[in-house]
Amino acid sequence: MSTNIRVAFIGAGNMAEAMISGIVKTGTLEPQQLLVTNQSNQERLLELHNRYGVQGIVFDSFPIESADVIILAMKPKDAETCLASIKDKLVPDQVVMSVLAGISTSYLQDHLKADQQVIRVMPNTSSMIQESATAISPGESVTMKNVNLAKKILGAIGEVYLIEEEQMDLFTGLAGSGPAYYYYLMEHIEEIAVENGMDSSLARRIGAQTILGAAKMMIERDESPEQLRTNITSKNGTTQSGLEALAANGGGKAIKAAIASAMKRSKEISAHLENNPTHHY
Q1: What are the structural domains of the chain?
Q2: Global pTM value
Q3: How far is the C-alpha of 107 from the C-alpha of 94, rounded, in Å?
Q4: Which one of 34, 81, 134, 197 has the fewest CB atoms closer than 10 angstroms to its CB?
Q5: What is the C-alpha to C-alpha distance for residues 63 and 61, in angstroms, rounded to an integer?
Q6: Whole-number Cα distances in Å, 42 to 47, 56, 101, 247, 264
Q7: Residue 37's closest CA among 78, 91, 93, 95?
Q8: Residue 157: is it exposed, middle or buried by C-beta count within 10 angstroms (0-12/13-18/19+)?
Q9: pLDDT of 281
Protein backbone atom coordinates (compact mmCIF):
# COMPACT_ATOMS: atom_id res chain seq x y z
CA MET A 1 0.00 0.00 0.00
CA SER A 2 1.16 3.54 -0.68
CA THR A 3 3.49 5.06 1.88
CA ASN A 4 1.53 8.31 1.46
CA ILE A 5 -1.58 6.92 3.15
CA ARG A 6 -2.13 8.11 6.71
CA VAL A 7 -4.64 6.55 9.07
CA ALA A 8 -5.78 8.34 12.23
CA PHE A 9 -7.42 6.57 15.18
CA ILE A 10 -9.60 8.62 17.50
CA GLY A 11 -9.80 6.42 20.57
CA ALA A 12 -7.01 4.23 21.93
CA GLY A 13 -8.81 1.33 23.59
CA ASN A 14 -8.72 -2.41 22.99
CA MET A 15 -10.27 -2.35 19.52
CA ALA A 16 -7.97 0.42 18.29
CA GLU A 17 -4.98 -1.52 19.60
CA ALA A 18 -6.18 -4.75 17.98
CA MET A 19 -6.43 -3.00 14.62
CA ILE A 20 -3.11 -1.20 15.03
CA SER A 21 -1.44 -4.47 15.99
CA GLY A 22 -2.73 -6.26 12.90
CA ILE A 23 -1.86 -3.42 10.54
CA VAL A 24 1.71 -3.18 11.88
CA LYS A 25 2.34 -6.93 12.14
CA THR A 26 1.26 -7.57 8.56
CA GLY A 27 3.20 -4.61 7.21
CA THR A 28 0.05 -3.21 5.59
CA LEU A 29 1.17 0.24 6.72
CA GLU A 30 4.32 1.47 8.41
CA PRO A 31 3.98 2.58 12.05
CA GLN A 32 4.73 6.19 11.10
CA GLN A 33 1.65 6.16 8.85
CA LEU A 34 -0.58 5.58 11.89
CA LEU A 35 -1.71 8.34 14.23
CA VAL A 36 -3.68 7.80 17.44
CA THR A 37 -5.33 10.07 19.97
CA ASN A 38 -7.77 9.79 22.87
CA GLN A 39 -9.71 11.96 25.25
CA SER A 40 -7.00 12.62 27.84
CA ASN A 41 -4.92 9.52 28.64
CA GLN A 42 -1.42 10.45 27.50
CA GLU A 43 0.10 7.43 29.24
CA ARG A 44 -1.96 5.17 26.97
CA LEU A 45 -0.73 7.04 23.89
CA LEU A 46 2.86 6.59 25.03
CA GLU A 47 2.21 2.90 25.64
CA LEU A 48 0.94 2.41 22.08
CA HIS A 49 3.88 4.39 20.69
CA ASN A 50 6.39 2.25 22.59
CA ARG A 51 4.66 -0.99 21.63
CA TYR A 52 3.96 -0.36 17.92
CA GLY A 53 5.88 2.77 16.91
CA VAL A 54 2.71 4.73 16.07
CA GLN A 55 2.41 8.45 16.66
CA GLY A 56 0.42 9.27 19.80
CA ILE A 57 -0.83 12.86 19.79
CA VAL A 58 -3.09 14.69 22.26
CA PHE A 59 -6.52 15.45 20.79
CA ASP A 60 -6.21 19.25 20.91
CA SER A 61 -3.12 19.02 18.66
CA PHE A 62 -4.31 16.12 16.53
CA PRO A 63 -3.83 16.83 12.78
CA ILE A 64 -7.16 15.45 11.51
CA GLU A 65 -6.77 17.21 8.18
CA SER A 66 -3.54 15.31 7.41
CA ALA A 67 -5.15 11.84 7.48
CA ASP A 68 -6.67 10.00 4.52
CA VAL A 69 -8.71 7.72 6.79
CA ILE A 70 -10.11 8.60 10.22
CA ILE A 71 -11.14 5.61 12.34
CA LEU A 72 -13.59 6.37 15.15
CA ALA A 73 -12.80 3.98 18.01
CA MET A 74 -13.93 5.84 21.12
CA LYS A 75 -16.92 4.87 23.29
CA PRO A 76 -20.22 5.14 21.39
CA LYS A 77 -21.62 7.56 23.97
CA ASP A 78 -18.88 10.03 23.01
CA ALA A 79 -19.60 9.89 19.29
CA GLU A 80 -21.76 12.99 18.90
CA THR A 81 -19.37 15.36 20.64
CA CYS A 82 -16.39 13.91 18.79
CA LEU A 83 -18.13 14.24 15.42
CA ALA A 84 -19.01 17.85 16.20
CA SER A 85 -15.38 18.59 17.05
CA ILE A 86 -13.99 17.20 13.78
CA LYS A 87 -16.83 18.09 11.37
CA ASP A 88 -15.36 21.36 10.11
CA LYS A 89 -11.81 19.99 9.89
CA LEU A 90 -12.68 17.23 7.41
CA VAL A 91 -12.58 17.39 3.63
CA PRO A 92 -14.76 15.31 1.26
CA ASP A 93 -11.83 13.17 0.06
CA GLN A 94 -11.27 11.87 3.58
CA VAL A 95 -13.16 8.78 4.64
CA VAL A 96 -14.45 8.35 8.20
CA MET A 97 -14.61 4.74 9.32
CA SER A 98 -16.53 3.95 12.50
CA VAL A 99 -16.03 0.79 14.56
CA LEU A 100 -18.57 2.02 17.12
CA ALA A 101 -21.30 -0.45 18.02
CA GLY A 102 -24.76 0.85 17.25
CA ILE A 103 -23.68 3.89 15.23
CA SER A 104 -25.26 3.80 11.76
CA THR A 105 -23.96 5.42 8.59
CA SER A 106 -26.99 7.71 8.59
CA TYR A 107 -26.08 8.86 12.12
CA LEU A 108 -22.55 9.64 10.95
CA GLN A 109 -23.79 11.50 7.89
CA ASP A 110 -26.30 13.47 9.96
CA HIS A 111 -23.52 14.70 12.25
CA LEU A 112 -20.96 15.45 9.56
CA LYS A 113 -21.11 17.40 6.31
CA ALA A 114 -23.64 16.10 3.80
CA ASP A 115 -21.05 14.83 1.32
CA GLN A 116 -18.66 13.33 3.87
CA GLN A 117 -17.58 9.80 3.03
CA VAL A 118 -18.40 7.40 5.87
CA ILE A 119 -18.11 3.64 6.32
CA ARG A 120 -19.54 1.64 9.20
CA VAL A 121 -17.20 -1.14 10.32
CA MET A 122 -17.82 -4.09 12.62
CA PRO A 123 -14.67 -6.07 13.45
CA ASN A 124 -14.27 -8.50 16.31
CA THR A 125 -11.56 -9.01 18.90
CA SER A 126 -9.78 -11.66 16.83
CA SER A 127 -8.32 -8.61 15.07
CA MET A 128 -5.40 -8.96 17.50
CA ILE A 129 -4.25 -12.15 15.74
CA GLN A 130 -5.34 -11.09 12.23
CA GLU A 131 -8.34 -13.45 12.24
CA SER A 132 -11.24 -11.00 12.54
CA ALA A 133 -14.50 -11.42 10.69
CA THR A 134 -15.08 -7.77 9.75
CA ALA A 135 -18.14 -6.29 8.04
CA ILE A 136 -18.27 -2.93 6.28
CA SER A 137 -21.27 -0.90 5.13
CA PRO A 138 -20.41 2.19 3.04
CA GLY A 139 -22.45 5.37 3.23
CA GLU A 140 -24.04 7.01 0.21
CA SER A 141 -21.10 9.28 -0.71
CA VAL A 142 -18.25 6.78 -0.52
CA THR A 143 -16.17 6.28 -3.66
CA MET A 144 -15.18 2.79 -4.78
CA LYS A 145 -11.57 3.88 -4.32
CA ASN A 146 -12.18 4.41 -0.61
CA VAL A 147 -14.22 1.20 -0.27
CA ASN A 148 -11.23 -0.67 -1.67
CA LEU A 149 -8.87 1.28 0.59
CA ALA A 150 -10.99 0.29 3.60
CA LYS A 151 -10.90 -3.35 2.50
CA LYS A 152 -7.11 -3.27 2.20
CA ILE A 153 -6.63 -1.69 5.62
CA LEU A 154 -9.10 -4.01 7.33
CA GLY A 155 -7.74 -7.01 5.43
CA ALA A 156 -4.72 -6.67 7.72
CA ILE A 157 -6.83 -7.94 10.61
CA GLY A 158 -8.75 -10.77 8.91
CA GLU A 159 -11.52 -11.39 6.40
CA VAL A 160 -13.66 -8.45 5.23
CA TYR A 161 -17.31 -8.73 4.15
CA LEU A 162 -19.27 -6.01 2.36
CA ILE A 163 -22.85 -6.11 3.66
CA GLU A 164 -25.98 -3.99 3.63
CA GLU A 165 -26.53 -1.65 6.56
CA GLU A 166 -29.73 -3.50 7.52
CA GLN A 167 -27.66 -6.64 8.14
CA MET A 168 -25.26 -5.00 10.61
CA ASP A 169 -27.24 -5.93 13.72
CA LEU A 170 -27.38 -9.54 12.54
CA PHE A 171 -23.66 -9.47 11.80
CA THR A 172 -23.08 -8.14 15.32
CA GLY A 173 -24.91 -11.16 16.73
CA LEU A 174 -23.07 -13.59 14.46
CA ALA A 175 -19.52 -12.26 14.45
CA GLY A 176 -19.18 -9.18 16.64
CA SER A 177 -20.33 -11.11 19.71
CA GLY A 178 -19.55 -14.49 18.14
CA PRO A 179 -16.10 -15.18 19.64
CA ALA A 180 -17.63 -15.09 23.12
CA TYR A 181 -19.96 -17.96 22.23
CA TYR A 182 -17.00 -20.14 21.30
CA TYR A 183 -15.12 -19.13 24.44
CA TYR A 184 -18.20 -20.07 26.44
CA LEU A 185 -18.26 -23.44 24.67
CA MET A 186 -14.59 -23.91 25.49
CA GLU A 187 -15.21 -23.13 29.16
CA HIS A 188 -17.60 -26.06 29.33
CA ILE A 189 -15.37 -28.38 27.29
CA GLU A 190 -12.53 -27.64 29.70
CA GLU A 191 -14.81 -28.04 32.71
CA ILE A 192 -16.10 -31.52 31.77
CA ALA A 193 -12.56 -32.62 30.90
CA VAL A 194 -11.22 -31.56 34.32
CA GLU A 195 -14.16 -33.28 36.03
CA ASN A 196 -13.01 -36.48 34.34
CA GLY A 197 -9.36 -36.16 35.33
CA MET A 198 -7.72 -34.34 32.42
CA ASP A 199 -5.33 -31.44 32.92
CA SER A 200 -7.09 -28.14 32.10
CA SER A 201 -4.36 -26.81 29.80
CA LEU A 202 -4.31 -30.04 27.80
CA ALA A 203 -8.11 -30.01 27.55
CA ARG A 204 -7.98 -26.40 26.36
CA ARG A 205 -5.51 -27.21 23.60
CA ILE A 206 -7.50 -30.24 22.48
CA GLY A 207 -10.77 -28.32 22.44
CA ALA A 208 -9.31 -25.31 20.64
CA GLN A 209 -7.67 -27.49 17.98
CA THR A 210 -10.97 -29.33 17.46
CA ILE A 211 -12.82 -26.02 16.89
CA LEU A 212 -10.03 -24.78 14.62
CA GLY A 213 -10.07 -27.97 12.55
CA ALA A 214 -13.86 -27.90 12.19
CA ALA A 215 -13.77 -24.24 11.13
CA LYS A 216 -11.13 -24.97 8.48
CA MET A 217 -13.20 -27.90 7.17
CA MET A 218 -16.15 -25.54 6.66
CA ILE A 219 -13.98 -22.95 4.92
CA GLU A 220 -12.07 -25.33 2.68
CA ARG A 221 -14.67 -27.96 1.79
CA ASP A 222 -17.77 -27.58 -0.39
CA GLU A 223 -20.08 -29.52 1.95
CA SER A 224 -22.62 -27.71 4.09
CA PRO A 225 -22.26 -27.82 7.89
CA GLU A 226 -25.17 -30.28 7.95
CA GLN A 227 -23.37 -32.58 5.49
CA LEU A 228 -20.10 -32.37 7.40
CA ARG A 229 -21.96 -33.29 10.57
CA THR A 230 -23.68 -36.20 8.85
CA ASN A 231 -20.35 -37.45 7.48
CA ILE A 232 -19.00 -38.13 10.97
CA THR A 233 -22.20 -39.32 12.64
CA SER A 234 -22.27 -43.12 12.64
CA LYS A 235 -25.53 -44.82 13.56
CA ASN A 236 -25.64 -45.55 17.29
CA GLY A 237 -22.09 -44.21 17.65
CA THR A 238 -20.52 -41.76 20.05
CA THR A 239 -21.16 -38.70 17.87
CA GLN A 240 -24.84 -39.52 17.50
CA SER A 241 -25.12 -39.94 21.25
CA GLY A 242 -23.47 -36.56 21.82
CA LEU A 243 -25.68 -34.82 19.25
CA GLU A 244 -28.81 -36.33 20.78
CA ALA A 245 -27.75 -34.97 24.17
CA LEU A 246 -27.20 -31.54 22.62
CA ALA A 247 -30.67 -31.57 21.09
CA ALA A 248 -32.31 -32.87 24.26
CA ASN A 249 -30.72 -30.03 26.25
CA GLY A 250 -31.68 -27.33 23.78
CA GLY A 251 -28.22 -26.86 22.23
CA GLY A 252 -29.43 -25.72 18.80
CA LYS A 253 -32.14 -23.49 20.22
CA ALA A 254 -29.66 -21.93 22.63
CA ILE A 255 -27.26 -21.01 19.82
CA LYS A 256 -30.01 -19.38 17.77
CA ALA A 257 -31.36 -17.61 20.86
CA ALA A 258 -27.92 -16.19 21.66
CA ILE A 259 -27.54 -14.70 18.19
CA ALA A 260 -31.11 -13.37 18.15
CA SER A 261 -30.65 -11.78 21.58
CA ALA A 262 -27.37 -10.11 20.62
CA MET A 263 -28.96 -8.84 17.39
CA LYS A 264 -31.92 -7.44 19.36
CA ARG A 265 -29.59 -5.72 21.82
CA SER A 266 -27.60 -4.19 18.96
CA LYS A 267 -30.81 -2.67 17.61
CA GLU A 268 -31.71 -1.36 21.08
CA ILE A 269 -28.29 0.26 21.48
CA SER A 270 -28.62 1.91 18.07
CA ALA A 271 -32.07 3.26 18.93
CA HIS A 272 -30.87 4.53 22.32
CA LEU A 273 -27.87 6.33 20.82
CA GLU A 274 -30.03 7.88 18.12
CA ASN A 275 -32.56 9.16 20.68
CA ASN A 276 -30.30 9.98 23.63
CA PRO A 277 -27.16 11.78 22.39
CA THR A 278 -24.62 12.68 25.07
CA HIS A 279 -21.74 15.10 25.26
CA HIS A 280 -18.82 13.50 27.07
CA TYR A 281 -15.93 13.51 24.61
Answers
A1: 7-165 (3.40.50.720), 176-268 (1.10.3730.10)
A2: 0.86
A3: 17
A4: 197
A5: 6
A6: 9, 8, 25, 52, 36
A7: 78
A8: buried
A9: 34
